[in-house]
Amino acid sequence: MRIKINAVAAATAMVLGCFSTAANANLVITEYIEGSSNNKAVEVSNMGGSAIDLDANAYKLILFGNGADASKPGNTETLTGTLAPGKSLVFHNSGAADAFKVGNASTVTYFNGDDALVLTKDDVVIDRFGKRGEDPGTAWTDPSDANFSTANKTLRRKASVTTGDTVAEADFPGTNNQWLVFDIDTADGLGCSGEGACSSEATPGLLLLTEYIEGSSNNKAIEISNVGGSAIDLDANVYKLTLFGNGADASNPGNSETLTGTLDPGKSLVFHNSGAADAFKVGNASTVTFFNGDDALVLTKDDVVIDRFGKRGEDPGSAWTDPNDANFSTANKTLRRKASVTAGDTIAEADFPGTNNQWAVFDIDTADGLGCAGEGTCDGSVTPPEPPLPETGPCTGCETLTPVADPTTFNAEIYYSDIVSGEFANAEELKNALSAIIAKEHKQLTYKQVWSTLTYADQDPNDDKKVIEIYTGTSISKYDNQTSGSGVGKWNREHVWAKSHGFPSESQWGYTDAHHLRPSDPGINTARSNNDFGACKDTGEEVLFNGVGTGNYLDKATDCWEPRDEVKGDVARMIMYMDTRYQGTDTATTQMPDLVAVDRLTTADEDSAPLIGTLCTLYAWNQLDAVDTYEQNRNNQVYKYQGNRNPFIDRPELVQQVYGAVCGDDPNPVLEVEGDIVTPESVTEGAAYTLDASAIKAGEAVTLTYKWEQMVAEEKILVGNEAILSLTAPMVKADETLNFTLTISDGKLETTKDVSLNVINVPLTLNVEFAGTTKVTEGDKTSITATVTGAPEGTSYSWKQVSGDIALFTATGLTLDVTSPSVNINQVLVFELTASVDGESFSQSVSIEVLNAEDNGWTKPDGAGSLGGFITLLLPLIWLRRRQG
């Protein structure tokens, strides 16, 4: 099984994400003006929360005129520089009126109402305006909005749109029109994203280091400012200012300061040295100011660098200086960030101050700018930011909660990035990956904090003073929570996954996990008890509330509870969340067992087991009752205070990906077949063989097709498309295994089978004949010639002497010429012929007997003779031929 999150699923997630997301760094076309004469302009904005380095990729805005398709791009503008969050680039027609001349003149604005614009990143579409490849005539219009037209109008992207429209050939503006219409020649929105005029728009909050003072003695201070247009909740993330002294690297942080509270636009936080003069004692004393001119400061958000001062990991000696500015020094100076800087310096190990120095220099012990951003002095009206007002306790005896996450900036694409484009061998691998994602930022709530969380998560959309009970649907005052005594007219906390099924202790994370805790009438909660969920309407009795049926059914004989139709999907997705969140992988932290949703009703003996049913009934309920806005808002509110999310609400398609296969709705179905492939156990190299799949059937009268592939190195090569594959085994140097994959298809579904075949190497025997005189007198010469029958093409030969007194010899190919040495007594010389081909070499030897010459007066005895002429030796040679791949 291979699970891959496909493009349709990803697109679905992007649409659902619009309910609660703001992209981290998303480039979007936010305004289009097609006015009278040459009054034409287009605006591109960064709708995310971090700066975009436009030079790091090829960002282009391309005009496609008069129905031109993707192969015929027109005028093009390449985007450059850095675009801070909330900032915009504008391109205007050079002949436009002055009001439209915002940004830069560009020929990409040579459009009329019937031309399309496409925004790309590295040639991939990230947004579009109009429909590429279509000429609508005069303009694109919207049948649902008579005022909408791409001609003679100003159009602004709705503020809710934070990600681009990536299908350039789709109908435009489509069924979900993302554009607001303004009168012809309206220009007051150019230069800022949003639906209103620029004067009313606020950019996102942006935290920067804005002043650094390293003065005499202990006159040291550092200022951090919000230079954006909206407040920053410093408690929603972990913001830290950390000192790295004397060249310390990232692994050796020094003193640090955690930022807290809310920092309004234009406001500043100041930390000073406790020993500084009074003029420097703005804000709070902090040990993070124990710096000299050679120490670095790094500002982080959730451990990610968002700004820095100095170069982390470097000790410059006494100070960092600037060769282009003799006045600049990080010692004995006051430095203020230039007002033009709108993005943090996020590379803490880069040279400092770099080629583009962002700091204005002031004399030592200058303190009149502390407490306000900018290059000038503060006028005295700047006061430290007020701490956030505490929230009123939301219910009886409930405590105020501090948010740990911001749902308005949640980005589903980033949060689920590990699975959006991932591939998983099976559903369990995908489920494990999801579990890791939703465990990462999970903050354990106390059981008391659950009360407060539910007042936000289950708030009545029509009355913010009430919550809605899960099983009755009743709207009840938040302050009617049952803290003690009778539960009549009260609401309590229902564990949808019954806590007795695996986590009876309040210290266990599942006990206080708000993703499955819901407000409930205490009497109905008691009736539900710890029963499993199942389809028991026909066998159980309807549960009453104040004498009226609730739509919930209880079968006491089987301990089965069937909730009302309106929340069946909610229940299913809560159970699936618990089954996925608590995989038993972080037990040391959560004290939780592996929770398992089983496809049956559990027994009384299993009441304390970490099991709950009935999985496939829940799966059906998920399809019956789809995710709605109430559930999405609930997911956001739990995320705000608990820090993690229910993936089956954010991405409903994951239900099928994780649970579909076990519930008969496999997202990646395969063809079911019977029968096996008939294969030989092994085959000898060079021999013909067959792999026979003709016995495989997929039911009566089902026609199958076949695709045989062989794995060669790391590639699959097609080798046949019939049921029977006939091949010849290759020649091999040693026994080798061949691997094949057979894909069988009925035209709709397919399955694969793997086959392995062992090819046996068989040594080849060759005949070698040696001819020549093999008995000589010392000092004589002889020649030996070898003849090899059937040697492979390309074989080379070499000779060497392996024993006997050293003789002079030469060898050419198969011929050996030897001059025998002087010997005291008769002896045998042995020479070895080595044949080599394709890295393989094999040897055979031949012997030459050398006779000692006769002394004077010595007579050869009768009967003595000599071997003369040719002696032919027939010798076998084992030849291992190189594998013929």
TrEMBL record:
Molecular function per GO: endonuclease activity
Family to which the UniProt record says this protein belongs: Belongs to the EndA/NucM nuclease family.
Key word Kinase present: no
Keyword Transmembrane part of the UniProt annotation: no
Residues spanning the signal sequence: 1-25
Protein name (Swiss-Prot/TrEMBL): Endonuclease
Gene3D superfamilies: 2.60.40.3010
